[in-house]
Amino acid sequence: MHKSVDKFLSAHPEIARHFIEKFFQIAENPFTTTFDIKPLKGKPHNYRLRIGKYRFLYEIKNIEILIWIWRADSKNSVYDNI
C-alpha cells in the first residue's frame, strides 16, 4: 500500500475498517462482483473501488495475485493526475 493511502486512512478512521474488510475479501477473490468496482479506462489491470464518497484505485498483478493500492481520495480528487 502506498504511503499516501496509509495517510488517507489515518485521517479517515471511519472508513479504514470498511477498507480493510473489503480488501481482505478482494485479496481472496480479486475479480469479485460483490463490491462497487469498475476497471479504469485505458489502464489494464487497474480498478476503482467505491466506499461511500471515497474511491480507492488499485492494480491487480495476476501472476502474484498482488494488489497494489496506489490512490485514495474523494471522488472529486481521486482521478486527478493519473
What this model shows, in words?
The protein has helices spanning 3-11, 13-28; strands spanning 37-39, 46-51, 54-61, 66-74. By secondary structure, the protein is an alpha+beta fold. The protein has a single domain, classed as YaeB-like fold. Strands 1-2-3-4 form a 4-stranded antiparallel sheet. It is globular, with a radius of gyration of 12 Å. The mean pLDDT is 87.
The proportion of strand residues reads: 25-35%
- Tell me the span between the first and last alpha carbons: 17 Å
Q: Strand order of the main beta sheet, please?
A: 1-2-3-4
Oligomer: single chain
Mean of all residue-level pLDDT scores: 87
The value of Rg in angstroms is 12 Å
Number of strands: 4
Global structural class: alpha+beta
Helix share bin: 25-40%
Assign the CATH topology.
Answer: YaeB-like fold
Number of helices: 2
Instruction: Supply the number of structural domains.
Output: 1
Which regions are unreliable across 5 or more consecutive residues at pLDDT < 50?
A: none
Order of helices and strands: HHEEEE
Shape verdict: globular
Task: Write the CATH homologous superfamily.
Answer: RelE-like
In CATH, the architecture is 2-Layer Sandwich
CATH top level assignment = Alpha Beta
How would a textbook summarize the main sheet?
4 strands, antiparallel
Which key terms come to mind for this protein?
82 residues, alpha+beta, YaeB-like fold, four-stranded antiparallel beta sheet, 2 helices, 30% helix, globular
